[in-house]
Amino acid sequence: MTDSLHDLALQLDQFAKDRDWQQFHSPKNLASALVVEAGELLEHFQWLTDEQSRALVPEKREAVAAEAADVLLYLIQLTSALGIDPIEAAQAKLKLNELKYPVDRARGSSKKYDEL
Amino acid sequence: MTDSLHDLALQLDQFAKDRDWQQFHSPKNLASALVVEAGELLEHFQWLTDEQSRALVPEKREAVAAEAADVLLYLIQLTSALGIDPIEAAQAKLKLNELKYPVDRARGSSKKYDEL
Amino acid sequence: MTDSLHDLALQLDQFAKDRDWQQFHSPKNLASALVVEAGELLEHFQWLTDEQSRALVPEKREAVAAEAADVLLYLIQLTSALGIDPIEAAQAKLKLNELKYPVDRARGSSKKYDEL
Amino acid sequence: MTDSLHDLALQLDQFAKDRDWQQFHSPKNLASALVVEAGELLEHFQWLTDEQSRALVPEKREAVAAEAADVLLYLIQLTSALGIDPIEAAQAKLKLNELKYPVDRARGSSKKYDEL
Question: Would you say residue C108 has pLDDT above 80?
Answer without folding.
Answer: no
